[in-house]
Design goal:
By secondary structure, the chain is mainly beta. About 5% of the residues lie in helices and about 45% in strands. The chain has one domain. The strands form two sheets. The chain has a 19-stranded antiparallel sheet that branches. The protein has a two-stranded antiparallel sheet with strand order 15-16. The longest helix is centred in the last third of the chain and has 7 residues. The radius of gyration is 23 Å and the shape is globular.
Length: about 325
């Protein structure tokens, strides 16, 4: 092992805060998990210094949170669907080797994960594992732009951390590919639409600081409230179609279905390629910008929010891969 032996593994918890040995490992670009140290402190009045006394504070661990950013690959990413969305269903196989994992809105209660990071010491490269347990995905963002990979950023919240559990042995799926802009297609209102940037950000509305007087300072499992999702698209200013959605004065005219699909480069079966598809049945267009900025061709920026149409999941993610289970 050496100074570049970074590692990220996950374990699917059956009980919130009860960790296990990570069994699923992912390549990642960066992480920003930071720990919060709590202090219960008194400020009594008595003769002495004007500073608060050192023996009037009680420390406790308040949790950890931050982001994990990674490229979406053609294997393994079904693992995150139930933690991102709440529900996942698997069908297949098609053509012997192709399985479809479909993530939809569902109850996030009872779904938690453990994440173990290896943060090697510098400059020795000695392993130092951090095992974060009681993990929830608080928010997530998919993004893609020209010349780039499809990226997933997970906002994570954890109950506890352990730095003494041995580092799990990492193993990765074989023959994986990136989903990239080269295989991306976006449809708006049923028609293919050429774009330069796409982003979808979902906030799961979790209450992450459920602390109660109960014999310990660990927070209880976060619970959900109102969820929120926003999208952003950049494209050439090629017509008034998209601007008119944002400027419409009837509710129906502001809404359109968005389907964004990324196809991998290597066949899974005889005719089926791996795909990662996001469907938003009721995307409400709220903002449009198409300003002239110098001599460059005008680019339009579209922003809006995801709404529930009364029947379909507000966001659906369909992931086709060779993975037999999510």
């Amino acid at each position: 092992m050496g100074a570049m032996d970074h590692q990220c593994g996950f374990f699917d918890e059956s009980t919130y805060g009860t960790s296990g040995t990570p069994t699923r490992f992912f390549e990642y670009d960066s992480e920003s998990i930071s720990e919060v140290e709590g202090r219960t402190e008194g400020d009594p009045l008595r003769v002495g210094s004007g500073f608060i006394r050192s023996d009037r504070s009680t420390p406790y661990f308040a949790g950890a949170s931050g982001d994990l950013e990674m490229a979406v690959l053609t294997k393994g990413f079904g693992f995150f669907l139930k933690h991102m969305m709440g529900a996942v269903a698997t069908t297949g196989p098609a053509e012997t080797t192709v399985y479809t994992h479909t993530g939809t809105e569902g109850n996030l209660l009872g779904k938690s994960l453990t994440m173990q990071l290896n943060r090697p010491f510098h400059p020795t490269g000695t392993n130092q594992p951090f095992l974060y347990k009681g993990g929830k995905i608080t928010d997530w963002e998919l993004s893609n732009s020209v010349d780039e990979n499809l990226m997933l950023k997970l906002g994570l919240d954890f109950q506890q951390v352990d730095t003494v559990t041995a580092l799990a042995t990492a193993s990765y799926p074989a023959t994986m590919d990136n989903f990239t802009w080269a295989g991306g297609v976006v449809e708006i209102g049923g028609s293919s639409y050429d774009i330069t940037e796409f982003a979808l950000k979902v906030d799961n509305g979790l209450k992450t600081d459920r602390r109660q007087i109960r014999g310990n300072t660990d927070k209880k499992e976060p619970t959900s409230s109102r969820r929120k999702a926003e999208f952003a698209i950049k494209a050439d200013f090629d017509s008034m179609t998209q601007r008119n959605r944002a400027h419409a004065t009837t509710r129906a005219a502001t809404l359109a279905q968005i389907v964004a699909t990324w196809t991998g480069p290597t066949l899974l079966g005889s005719t089926i390629y791996p795909t990662f598809q996001v469907t938003i049945p009721a995307a409400r267009f709220d903002e449009w910008k198409g300003a002239t900025e110098g001599t460059e061709a005008i680019e339009q920026e579209l922003k809006g929010e995801v709404r529930f149409d009364g029947s379909a999941s507000p966001v659906t993610v369909v992931y086709k891969s060779a993975d037999t289970t999510p």
